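Reply to dn_fold:

You asked what the input looked like. This is it:
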Amino acid sequence: MTIYHDPFRVIYQADLLSHDHIDWDYNSYFSYAPNNVVLSVLLSVWLKLTQLVSIPTNIAINVLTITILDITIFMTLKIIRLVTSSSLFQVGVMLFFWATPLAYTYLLQVFYSDGILLFCFVNLIYLLLNWKNVSHYIKWIYGFLLTIIAALGMIIKPNFIVIEIALFLIVILKKVNGRGSLIVPFICVTVGLCLTPIINKEIETAVGYSPDTQYKLPISNWIYMGLNEKTSGTYSYEDIEKLEDVEYKSRTSESFDLIKERVNKLGFFGLFQQWISKMEILENFGTIQNAYIGGTYSAPTWFLRYKKFISGFISVLMRTAIIILMYLLLKKTLLFDINDISNRNWLFIELTILGLIGFHTLIWETESRYGLPLIFLYLILVSLPIKQVKMNLKNRKGLLVTSFLILIFCGYNLFFSRLKDNIELNPYVITAQRSQLSEKYQTKTVKLSPREKISEKVFLPVNVSYFSVLIPEKTKLEGQLINTKTKKKYPLQKETKSLVYDGKITKGSYIIQIKNASNTDQICWIVSPASYQLSKYKIQHQGNKYLIYKFEK
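and this is what came back:
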């Protein structure tokens, strides 16, 4: 898979740091996303350790990603086993992970903060739910782990704060009802969260990171993006550019003024509609399999031949599994006796779920991948035993009707409304190398001398109908695609930011050739990781360097 956007920038920086190449000035990305600085540093530590035993960077990252995911799934199953004696349900959860694409797509293929956040959520919940079952001495170990996990979770994502709020509410409720409390775990988690800014600062100082105030944005910027009606509250680069034009010292106050302006423009009904749209996106788990994946650079022919069908099947399968899970959750929630305040576990998970949904619906910007923790929390919640409210026949009929109507609504939004878009997301990308640092983050270009040529080999397992290679907008470069066997040449046409060939290209081995035909230096986009391999082939005689291209069908 070719990984792009934020995960690639994190991996690229970690790769540099692992080779003692400390450089934060090659582009402005980490001034926009300072929360990913620590993630890059932590990944670089892992890469340094694996280099001691000569493990290649790509394999090291894959091993780490698989390990984090497997531990997360294992601990989820341990929680299920802890809270329920139903073997049937335990097997059902195992089948959920085995049969759905959740564990085979984004979480397995892309190393990023979402996987680590899930790891932190699940492990912290296990420690809290199992707290009363362990001895005094084991609680010391649990307390230490709670502090470390809480600090890591908060460093990775700000939405981890919801678990602290949920725990605080449980402590208060237990205190009021005189049934004991989780005060010690609460203190441990609080200490971990309080340590977050200190750890962040120490790590940033150690690696020489200092954000450029020209690009640094206030936290309120993400609240501002969450109110963007055009993007339904998702990430908006236009909003970022708008605040960039404001003087650094005035950005926070300006962002609050812009927030007020958007709230007033939306009005009550518009704001409510915005929240519904954001909730729909957050719960739209069928899109997760394509997150940050720009295609494949080396895939079997059979996969490429049936890629559209596989994409659709994965989306349908994921949606079906989630709808079944939603039904079980809905049924259990409606049957739950709300007066059963003694059910600490149920209340804690329920409050955490409501906190996550509220955070990304009412406050922050949203994406479908932000809802990943909800899947694991839903599985845990469904497995929890509850005290059911006593119902007569009339109430049971009302429950069935309510469940059916809500299920139809969920089914429409989760299954039908965005299914077509998800199937057609990157459906025809056959071979690609799309990992890049991005022009919008002021990434430096590479100069090609007059008459200089660069070439990169690529293999096409099937016929394609379109090819493009990315180049800077104001550059005078020429290009061609050469079949290595027949020597047939496909001249590339200049477009705004790319050289393209729009026509049939038969399968086989090719050379992508870029040439500076002018008498002056010309700039070109080339990606140069320290050791991370971006595709099967590199630019010839240039070391670990790659062009940015894609072949489509």
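The radius of gyration is 26 Å.
Hope that clears it up.
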